Structures are given as C-alpha cells and as structure tokens.
Amino acid sequence: MTQAMIACADPRAAEAGLAILENGGNAVDAAIATAAALNVVDFANTGIGGDMFALVWMANEGEVAALNGSGRAPAAATREYLLRQGHETMPLRGPLPVTVPGALDGWRRLLDRYGCKSLGELLEPAIRLARDGFAINQRMVEAITECADALKHCAAAASVFLPQGKPPRTGALIRQPELANTFETVAREGIESFYHGKIAEAIHAGFRNAGGLLQQADLAAHTGEWTMPLESRYRHVTLYETPPNTQGLALIEQMNILEGWDLAALDPVERITRQIEAKRVSFADRDAHITDPAFANIPLAELMSKEYAASRRDKMALNPVAHMVDAGVFEQRPADTTYLAVVDSDGNCVSFINSLFQGMGSCFMPPGTGILFQNRGIGFSLDSNHINCLEPHKRTMHTLNPLMVLQDGKPYLVMGTIGGDQQTAGSQQVLVNHLDLGMEIEQAVAAPRWRCDTGRALYLEPLLDQEHGAALAQRGYTLEGSDTFFGGAQVIRIDPTSGQRSGASDHRVGGKALSGCKTGS
Length: 521
Known about the structure:
By secondary structure, the protein is of the alpha+beta class.
C-alpha cells in the first residue's frame, strides 16, 4: 500500500497526525490533529489564538481548493483611536495588536467539508500533551527568553512560560492545563464555544480588563472563507498559491520573472543576483497592492501575467549588476510560524500553515483560557495613505502562504516555508534548487540560503557567504552576516511515476517527516 506522510516542525505533532492516518483518518483529519498538537509543543509559533490558511487536494475531486482562515481587525480598532493613545505605529505586544483569531473556524471548515473523524478524536493528542506536559527544547526556550519582558506584563502567560519568574531551562517540563481545558470544552461543545460560548466570554473579559479592543461580538461575527487559489505555470509544473490577503502573489511573480532565464546555465552569483532581485521587485508590488480584497481593487490578472513579469525582468536584464531595479522599500516582518504538509495513502493532500505571527504572538493570554493570541495587527499601518491602513473589520496583508505544485494535473510537491517575509524567498530557493538545478528534495531544502530585507541588505548562511559573499558584495549588496532566520521548509514530494512519497523537514526548525499506512476507515 502507498504510504501516507506528514512533515512538520515537531516529531511529537507528526506522530499525532500519523496516528490519525493509521486509524482511518484522511489528510485533512491528520492536518487538524497535527496543528492542534503543534499548538502545544510549538506554542511560540502557532495556536488557536492565531490564523491559518490551507490548500487542499482531494483525489476524488481532482482540484485544488484554498481556505482563508484569517481574522479581521476588531470593530473598535481604528487608526484614530491608536493615535489618540500615543501610538505612531501599531504596538508590537500586548492586547492592542490582536486581531480576531481565525484558526479554529478554519479547522471547522476543513473538517466539515472533507474530514471523516470527530473533532474530539483529533484534539485528544493535543489535550494529552497539554495536560501531561512535555520537555521543552532549546528553540522554545530561546523564544520565551526573547519575549520574557513582554510575558511578564501578562500574569496568565507568565504563569505558564515563566515558572519562578524566569524562562525555563532546556528539557524542563511545560504543562498547559488551562489550554487542555479549553480544548476539552471545544471537543465537547464544538468550535462554536470559542466564538459564541463560554470561551468567548472569557476572552472578552480578558481583553476588556487589559484595555484591549477585541470583544465577544468580534468573535461572533468572524467567518473564514473558501477561495479560488492563484494558479501559474512554471516550466513543466503548475504552482498553486493562496490569494490576497496573503503574499502568495509575490511567489508567483518571482517565479514568473525567473522563468525567463535558464537559471541552471548561469554563473551561481549571477543566478543568485537575479533571484534576489526577483524577490525585491515582487515585494514592491506586494506592499503596493496586497491587502484585504474587500477594501481594495487588486489588479491580480495584471500582476500575475507573464507579460508583466517580462517587463520587470527586462528592467533587471538591462544591467542587473550595476543597475538593480528600484524595488522600493518594504518593511521587514520577521516572524515565527508553523507549517505542515500531509499526504495520505489515498492521495489526498493538505498544505497547511498556522501562526501567531511573531514569536509568542502578542504575549497576551486571557486568564483561564491558556490561549496565546497573535499580534497579526502589526501588519496594519497607521498611515492613512497606506493600503494596509488600519480599519475596523479589515484583514491585513498576511505573510502566511502555503504552496502546492502539480505536474501533469496531479500533486507533485506539497510544501511551505515559515519565516514572515522570508516565506516566499525560502520557497523560491527550494523550487529553483529542485526544479532548475536538479537537486533531490532533501538537498534542495538543506542547501544554504540567502535573505534580503530592506534596501540592499543581504544575509547569507555561512557556506553561501564563504563561496559567494565577496562577489555579491561587489554587486552592490551590503552583507549583514547570518544572524537571522532563513526560513524553515517542509516538503512532501510525490513521485509522478510510482506515487512514492519522500519528505524533507528543514534542519533549521528541527522537524520531522514521518510515513505510515492507513489501517482502517
């Protein structure tokens, strides 16, 4: 029997999802169980206090569906209010940058449309992990340590993550009994309890008492939505991305630009230069156009067209060394997220991303809930002329963007990369490594990466720096070292001939790709 496979950032979560697959669940059931377990063991990056997006391929339907599980700004969240409070930009932590969390509603929509297991069964591994506890790894210790000052301002969060008032040591046991209680309530009473019931009441009270803007009415009004994915050809494959309000368009534009060159034939420095510049110009378009489509007319057809990519590429090709195209200035959005890929033995595929945005999100936890909330609201601007200016009920531009790649009309790669602004650049590099340079998928994920942010600042992982750093610096880039996050990718490849699955879990996040077989239905 063809094996099922899960790739994600933590082996314990992969095991939770694999157990669902091995007991008759499908890829959607496994994705939800894995995401719930990650809420516990990857708590700094993901959870039901955040948002999610997914691409789904069900073998019996033969098409890619896109789910937008992102939330909106609270009704009381206005630019004028924050300016009166003395904020010139969106605050980073605390209750004010919190937007409505859409993750649980997204899980429900996935389960209602495609799942075959009960929500209670899917949440059981997460409940057990939260109640019994687990040994914390170094990556989570670092996340807590970085946010310790902000966590101290929230007693509920500090009680979980700062035992004895300081970050725990690597290997210490972390228990989250209130989160376990919340999951048990959701399993017993349904996801409605989060948006309309007693969990919603506790959330409302917590934000009201802390001076936040999120109210019970905002939760009750939330709706996720099924959308049409973005679709674009790249060489012999077809890319599927999530549409606005996500930055998926940026990856499409990058690949459209790069398609005009024989990348494998280029000198490595020349190729990397063009890859970097493709990212930079796509981000100028991203930041000029991508927002909640309910609040703006986004010229998607033009931005996704091969003709538009050619016009951008021609400017770069005139002299990409001496005259790098003006990409504008885009704001650096470092972020921590979790991504997971699932392919079951029937060929169903889920590309799934769930996030609190920055590490530990807002660092705010309403008492009695165990839920860390996202700080996705920092994607808004307080500049009235900015396309992502804060408005009530608006979704901000989202860095989250899962990816699926089809070959000859069938899934070939189920993949995604975490890391905020690095998500599209990370995925671009993996795709080029595999599709253009012929690397096996594990090698394509492990290969050293670059990251570019504002202006001409360029970060290189050590091996890339050793080999090409000096030559890239001569081309006008300012090398900033390797003290940054280069994105964590998870990929499942499905062999077009045999159907065999092979997984690659990025060493940068310590994840795992596990395989198994379905044993029942």
